[in-house]
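Hi there, hope your week has been kind to you so far. Would you mind checking whether the tokens look sensible for this chain? I owe you a coffee for this, so here goes:
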Amino acid sequence: MIRIADFTLALLGLLILLPLFLILIFLCYLDTGSPIFAQERVGKDSINFILYKFRTMDVSASSNYVIESDYLKITKLGSILRKFKFDEIPQLLNVLSGRMSLVGPRPCLPSQKKLIKLRKENGILEFKPGITGLAQIERVDMSKPEELTRLDMKMLKELNFKNYLLLISKTILGAGFGDSTFKI
């Protein structure tokens, strides 16, 4: 049922956001000359895939793990895209292809060995990565692998269709940030 919802909601989202998508491609092209950022990520069953986002940093920025100095390379447009999460819109294509879900663990980079090890040990890599999830709502990023793993395990243990919709709605509405009492 979640795969059907993923496909339907991602397709609907792309159709609704198509004008914005096209405008952002144009603006990102003017900003960096390369509107789409493609990066290898670790997916379900440890199978790598290419994740798509709008480019928010200068093309000279590292395509590996974002280091502190790379934040200096975020463009003005890129900071706006990140603020409103518009840089994530191309990930709907990853959802349509079946490589990602709307809800799941944040997809990590192959170079994040500690996080991959924790995810393998805890069965998290048996699930598709997602655009959003409990860790994203709680604003826990990849620099905290133990905390990220704990939240991913909690989310996946209690993930059902109702909680799937709840996580999506909290993401869209911007609610729940820092809410440690999130109950699923």
Summary: The longest helix spans residues 2-32. The two ends are 18 Å apart (CA to CA).
